[in-house]
Amino acid sequence: MAKIPWKYKRLVNKFFYLFREKPIALKGLKNFLYHIRNLLRLGKMPQADLTGEKVLSKNKGYLYVAIPKVATRSILSYFEKYDERDALVLHSSLNNIISENDDIVSAYWFSFVRNPWARAYSCWLDKISNQLKFCDITIISRYEGLKPDMPFDKFVEWLCSEEGSDEHADRHWMSQYELLGGEKYVEEFNFIGKIENLSDDFSIVGSKINVGPNKLPELNLNQKDPLSYRDKYNDATKALIAKRYKKDVTYFKYNF
């Protein structure tokens, strides 16, 4: 099913915000659209979505791989502001970008990751429980068993099902390890920072790529209390996320 261009999603989302004072009507509209799109899905299993944004600058020699729910809007805004002329924002898999750009091997590759438990909760909060955005329906209606406003513990259980696995995942809940190329490419990155240490880690990147100031403007960061996700878990859901995102936990050295 064709994806709706982001510029149109914004317009439709603005329409949905008109209903924010009428939550019952909004929920009914979202559920109606969800069921219509779900019927059009015709039982097809989605393909893994590895087409998140990448920022490539051949002139300055860097490649940034964005991971959803890891300060991507803030980082992309930085390049839009300070390197609009040279920075190319690409929506393709890392494998395709590398195959189409022979000189990318010598570029400075970097990305940022996030605690898997915090990222999973953030994904649910923004994509599943958010009442005021239409575009999320275009994502969740592609999957059997994924429903608007489903409880967090049920979403965690769903992530551990076949539909929720990396083989079929949307990029918003795809393993970060896989988004960074898995075994094939993750070791090729020059630097993988952490959102929990974003200010210091971005200053390292800034000193290498020489695009703008080494300080990242915090436009869309909900990091006032980086441990606030912990009280959303119980022992069962905590263990399920550890299993589902085992590669992220192990490779990027995270714990609950």
From TrEMBL:
Keyword vocabulary terms for this entry: Glycoprotein, Golgi apparatus, Membrane, Transferase, Transmembrane, Transmembrane helix
GO biological process terms held by the UniProt record: carbohydrate biosynthetic process
Coiled coil residues, start to end: none
Membrane topology type: Single-pass type II membrane protein
GO molecular function: sulfotransferase activity
Keyword Zinc carried by entry: no
Record flagged with keyword Ligase: no
UniProt-annotated location(s): Golgi apparatus membrane
Pfam family, one: Sulfotransfer_2
GO cellular component: membrane
Main localization of the protein described in the UniProt heading: Golgi
Superkingdom per UniProt: Bacteria
PANTHER family listed in its UniProt record: CARBOHYDRATE SULFOTRANSFERASE
Protein name: Sulfotransferase family protein
Organism from which the protein derives: Paraglaciecola mesophila
